[in-house]
Each structure stands twice: as structure tokens, then as C-alpha cells.
Amino acid sequence: MLKLDSHQHFWKFNSIRDNWITEEMEVIRHDFLPPDLKPLLYANGIEGCIAVQADQSESETDFLLAQAKEHNFIKGVVGWVDLCSPNIHERLEHYSQFSTLKGFRHILQSEPVEFILKPEFQRGISALHVFGFTYDILIYPQHLPVIPDLLRSHGNQAFIIDHLAKPDIKNGLLGNWETEMKHIASFENVYCKLSGMVTEADLRNWKKEDIFPYMDKVFDFFGAERLMFGSDWPVCKLAGEYDEVCGLLEEYLSKLSIREQELVWAKNAEQFYKL
């Protein structure tokens, strides 16, 4: 069965640029590059990956594109561009020349909720569709109420929610997250990544029983047709190794049909990112 990792990161650690990686996160305060990931992919039967931006700069996008050019198991890149720039069309036209560049992401989780509805940001999202780029939505649950407006305003844009929108798995809370995610899933132009779950749980003491209820919800809301696997490596190392993250999904998917497993492991990512 073909397997792809739709969400992981590379970086050359810089303590100033990467100041979100605090001293308490010592395990990821290092360089993580394609030669570090390749053996992990192959050991888990995963044939390729999507490299996603972690820094908000065009130099980050260029860095990831250079990695993809050098390593063919990187099947696509989700980069960063200033979506609020008045020159957004010019920048997207520039990036259109790179076949491995599939979409963009902004770290919305660090922005106030109202940022999402800013006219400048909305204009940038509109430009993505013109050039055929996807958009990864990285948010916290408090941002969820405005996401239907975003989806409704850009009905032809391909969106995907990263990390289940980071529910409070550690404390076992569903609440508004469940209600909002159900509403969001009613929009057919949005997918969801089964990624980043172990790091929203108790980092040192998580167990599958903590995480599976959240997976139950998104399978119920989105169906197997709009979900895909993402490791969130190396960030996942804060809570578990690569094979643990893969094993978590493998165990959950074992109760589903082969077709559904194929969709989640690879086919949805192939379709969404046009691999």
C-alpha cells in the first residue's frame, strides 16, 4: 500500500529565528534535514513526503524548494509568502515556475482571530486559486468560528486544516472544537490532516485512548475521503518517535476498509497536492 507523509519540516536550527523552539524543547533544538528523515520514511514503508514551512520568510520557501530539488522523496513543498503583500500576484507568478511547490501556509495560530478576515489576507487567499496553489490552515480552536467565513468566501480554493486545529487532547476537551469542526467539515473544499496529535496530548504520558476519540470525530465529520496522514516530524519528537506516530494511525486504520486506508495513507494527499 502506497504511503505518504503529508506534513513534516526541515530546518537548520537558528536560536534567534527559531525562538519558538524553547530550551524545554531540547530534543528538537538541532538541525533536521532530508538525510535524517529518509531512513525513517523507508523504515515505515513511506515513499515520500510534503515539506511544510516552519519560518515565515521567502527564504524558507526557497530553502525547502532546494531540498526538494536535491531529494526526490520530497514530493511537494508548502511554503510561505506574504499573502497580505500588494505584490502577491507577482510573487505567486514567480513561484509558479516550481513544480514541487504545491501550496502555502501562514502561521495563523500566532495571529489574532480577526487577522483571518482582513481584506489584505482575503485578497491573498483569492490569488492562490488563480495560480492553483493550496492553503494549509494552522490555527487553534479559538480561530475556528471565523473559518466558515473563509471557506464560504473562497469556495473554489483547496484548504486543509493542520493538526485537527489543535484540540485540547491533554485535558480531554471536545466542546466548541467538536461543534466548530463539524460545521467546517460541511464545506467540501476543506480537508484535514491527521497530524500533530501526540503533541497536543500529554507529551510524556499520552496513550492511544486519549487520541482516538478525536480521530473518531474527524472521521465522522470529514470521512476517509478528506483526511490524510502527517507525522509533523521532527516536532512530534517532543512526544514520540516517528514509528510511534505511524503506529498510532496504523492501529486506528486497521478497522477500516483497504480502500479507506489507501485514501488516508496516500491517495487523498496525491489528489489534494496534485502530486
> Helix-strand pattern, N to C?
EHEHEHEHEHEHEHEHH
Strand order, largest beta sheet: 1-2-3-4-5-6-7-8
How many helices? The count is: 9
For CATH, the homologous superfamily is named as Metal-dependent hydrolases
Structural commentary:
This protein is α/β, with parallel strands linked by helices and 275 residues long. The protein has a single domain, classed as Metal-dependent hydrolases (TIM Barrel, Alpha-Beta Barrel), CATH 3.20.20. Helices cover 38% and strands 13% of the residues. β7, α7 and β8 form a beta-alpha-beta unit. The longest helix has 15 residues.
Quick gist of this model?
This protein is of the alpha/beta class and 275 residues long.
Write the SSE topology.
Elements: E1 4-8, H1 34-43, E2 48-52, H2 58-70, E3 74-79, H3 88-95, E4 101-106, H4 119-131, E5 134-137, H5 147-153, E6 159-161, H6 175-185, E7 190-194, H7 208-222, E8 227-229, H8 242-253, H9 258-272
Parallel strand pairs: 1-2, 2-3, 3-4, 4-5, 5-6, 6-7, 7-8
Which features would summarize this protein structure in a list?
275 residues; alpha/beta; TIM Barrel; 8-stranded parallel β-sheet; 9 helices; 38% helix
